[in-house]
Write a structure and sequence with these properties.
Blueprint (H helix, E strand, L loop, with lengths): L2 H22 L7 E6 L3 H16 L3 E3 L7 E6 L4 H20 L6 E6 H13 L5 E2 L8 H8 L47 E5 L1 E2 L10 H5 L3 E2 L2 H13 L4 E5 L29 H9 L6 E4 L9 H9 L3 E6 L7 H6 L6 H14 L4 E8 L6 H14 L3 E6 L17 H18 L4 H7 L2 E5 L6 E5 L6 H5 L3 E2 L7 E2 L2
Parallel strand pairs: 1-2, 1-3, 3-4, 4-5, 6-9, 9-10, 10-11, 11-12, 12-13
Antiparallel strand pairs: 7-8, 14-15, 16-17
Bound molecules: iron/sulfur cluster (SF4).
C-alpha cells in the first residue's frame, strides 16, 4: 500500500468523524494529527494503533496534513527503495510545513526505519522533532502531548545539531521490540468497511540471509488465541466481511507459546500447543458472514493438518500466500530459507490436491548473490511448470546489516533487470489464466458493506490491493456508472 492509498483511506475514514465532530466541537481548539503511512499491512496496523492512541487522548485526526498541529510519517525500512521513499516523505512533510507557514507544526517519524536507524536519522534529519520506536505505537498520543508541552513530564526537545538531549528518547533503538497488540487496544481502522487486518503475531525467528526484518521487528511473539478471536468477533459485529490474518510468518503462529521449543522447520502440529490450524478451527465457529485470508505463510511449517483444516473450514478463503523466494537448492541454502526444492514441491502438490479451487500466490527474488545462469534457469523452469495463479518478482536488494549483503558474487543491476523481465515474461506466458484462477473465479463472494457502500464484489483469489482502498470512495449503482462519493 502506498502513501496515497493511506491518505485516501484516512480521508474516507475521517470524513465521518469530522462531520459529526464539527457539530459538537467545543470552542477550544483541539490538537489535530495527520499521518502518512508507508509500507506493508503490518505497518498499516501500527498506524491504526497510533491513531487509536491519539483519539484516546482527545485529539483529532485530519486527512489534511497542512492543517495538522502534528504530522506523523510512519516509515518502511524493508529495502533501499522503501527507505528512499520514506525519507522523501519526511522531507516533503517538512517542506510543506514551511510552504504552509506552520512553523509550529511538529514532525514525528515512526515505523520500521525509525526503529532501526533512529540515531543515524536524528543526525541526518534535524528537521524531525521526535523519532518513536515500534514498542511505542500505543503511546503516540502521550508523546504528542509531551512534544507540544502539555502535561509535560519529560520534555522531548527539538534536537540540537550535535544530538544533545536526545539519547534518552532514542533508547528504543538499542533494543529489539517486544510489543504485540491485544483485542482491546484502541485502534482507528484505516481500511474500508468491508475488510480489515488482524495481526496475529509480530516479529520473526527465521534467519533468511537477505532479510533485516527480524532486526527491526524482533523475535516472533504470538498473541493468545482468545485475543485474536475476540478481535475477529468484534470486527464481524462491526460489519467486516474479509479479515486478513497477518504477521511476518503466519504459519509459525502459536509455536512460540509451546512449552517445548519448536524448531525452525517445525510442521504445524496442534498436539503440541497453539497453532494456526487450531486458530482457524476456532474462527470457523464464529457466527456471521465473513471469510479470513492467510497472508505471509512460510513453506517450512505447512503440514497435512493445516491443509486439511483449510479444506474443512469454509470461512477460510481458498487463497494461500506462500513466499518461496527461490527454488534452486543451492540458492535456498545460501538464503538460509530452511526449506528445499523437494519440500516445496511436496507442499505445493499437497496444497493443490487437498484444497480444491485454491489460488496460490508466491514471490521470488532474482539476482541473489552468486545466482548462476543455471540456478536462474531452474527458477524459470519451476515457474513455467507450476503455473502459480499469482506471482511477484523482486530484484535482490543488498541490505546493510544482512548476511547476504556481505556475500561475494553480488550481481549487477543490469543482470537483475534482465532476470526480472525474463521471470515476469515466463509467468505471463504460463498463467494466462491458471487452472486455480478459473476455479477461484467461481468462488465469488458478495460482501455486504455498510451505509454508502452496500455491495462489494471480491474474489477469493485476490488479496487486498490499492483498489480496495479506492472502493469506499465510490457509490455503486446497479445500472449505472460508479460515482465518486462526496
Ligand atoms: S521469514 Fe525470512 S524473509 Fe520473512 S520476515 Fe522472516 S527472516 Fe524475513
Amino acid at each position: 500500500m502506498n502513501s496515497q492509498a493511506v491518505a485516501a483511506a484516512v480521508s474516507a475514514a475521517t470524513s465521518h468523524v469530522e462531520h459529526t465532530e464539527r457539530a459538537t466541537r467545543p470552542p477550544l481548539q483541539r490538537t489535530t494529527v495527520g499521518m502518512i503511512s508507508l509500507g506493508c499491512a503490518k505497518n498499516l496496523v501500527d498506524a491504526e494503533i497510533m491513531l487509536g492512541s491519539v483519539l484516546q487522548r482527545g485529539m483529532e485526526i485530519t486527512s489534511r496534513p497542512e492543517d495538522a498541529d502534528v504530522v506523523v510519517v510512519n516509515t518502511c525500512g524493508f529495502i533501499d527503495s522503501a527507505k528512499e521513499e520514506s525519507i522523501e516523505a519526511i522531507l516533503e512533510a517538512h517542506q510543506q510545513r514551511g510552504l504552509n507557514r506552520r512553523p509550529h507544526q511538529r514532525l514525528i517519524v515512526s515505523g520500521c526505519m525509525s526503529q532501526r536507524f533512529a540515531r543515524e536519522l536524528r543526525k541526518e534529519l534535524p528537521e524531525v522533532d521526535a523519532f518513536i520506536g515500534l514498542d511505542q505505537v500505543t503511546e503516540l498520543g502521550r508523546i504528542i502531548e509531551e512534544l507540544l508541552g502539555k502535561h509535560s513530564t519529560r520534555n522531548v526537545q527539538r534536537p540540537t545539531p550535535n544530538g544533545e538531549n536526545d539519547e534518552a528518547d532514542l533508547a528504543f533503538a538499542d533494543t529489539r521490540p517486544t510489543y504485540i497488540p491485544d483485542y482491546d487496544t484502541p485502534r482507528f481502522r484505516l481500511t474500508p468497511a468491508h475488510f480489515g487486518y488482524v495481526k496475529i503475531a509480530e516479529g520473526c525467528n527465521h534467519p533468511c540471509s537477505f532479510c533485516v526484518i527480524p532486526q527491526m521487528r524482533g523475535k516472533h511473539r504470538s498473541r493468545p488465541p482468545e485475543s485474536v478471536l475476540a478481535e475477529i468477533r468484534a470486527l464481524v459485529r462491526d460489519g467486516v466481511r474479509e479479515i486478513n490474518l497477518i504477521s511476518q510468518d503466519t504459519t509459525y503462529y502459536g509455536m512460540d507459546l509451546w512449552s517445548r521449543k519448536a524448531g525452525p522447520r517445525q510442521p504445524i502440529d496442534s498436539t503440541r500447543g497453539s497453532t494456526l490450524a487450531a486458530l482457524l478451527r476456532e474462527i470457523q465457529q464464529i457466527e456471521g458472514e465473513f471469510w479470513v485470508r492467510l497472508l505471509y505463510t512460510h513453506p517450512a511449517h505447512w503440514s497435512d493438518e493445516l491443509i486439511e483444516t483449510i479444506a474443512q473450514c469454509d470461512k477460510v478463503a481458498r487463497y494461500v500466500d506462500i513466499p518461496l523466494q527461490h527454488i534452486d537448492d543451492s540458492v535456498l541454502r545460501r538464503m538460509l530459507r530452511e526449506t528445499s526444492r523437494a519440500h516445496i514441491e511436496n507442499v505445493i502438490h499437497k496444497l493443490r490436491a487437498g484444497i480444491p479451487s485454491l489460488t496460490l500466490r508466491t514471490t521470488f527474488i532474482v539476482g541473489f548473490p552468486g545466482e548462476t545462469d543455471a540456478e536462474f534457469a531452474n527458477l524459470l523452469e519451476f515457474i513455467r511448470r507450476t503455473r502459480f495463479e499469482r506471482l511477484g518478482i523482486f530484484k535482490y536488494s543488498q541490505e546493510g546489516g544482512s548476511r547476504a549483503a556481505k556475500m561475494p558474487g553480488q550481481i549487477s543491476a543490469k543482470i537483475k533487470n534482465a532476470r526480472y523481465r525474463a521471470a515476469m515474461s515466463v509467468q505471463q506466458q504460463s498463467n494466462s489464466f491458471g487452472a486455480g484462477s478459473l476455479a477461484a473465479a467461481a468462488t465469488i463472494c458478495w460482501l455486504r458493506g455498510r451505509s454508502i457502500f452496500p455491495r462489494v464484489l471480491k474474489l477469493a483469489s485476490d488479496k487486498p490491493t490499492i483498489f480496495d482502498q479506492l472502493i469506499p470512495r465510490l457509490i455503486c449503482f446497479p445500472h449505472g456508472k460508479p460515482k465518486r462519493a462526496k
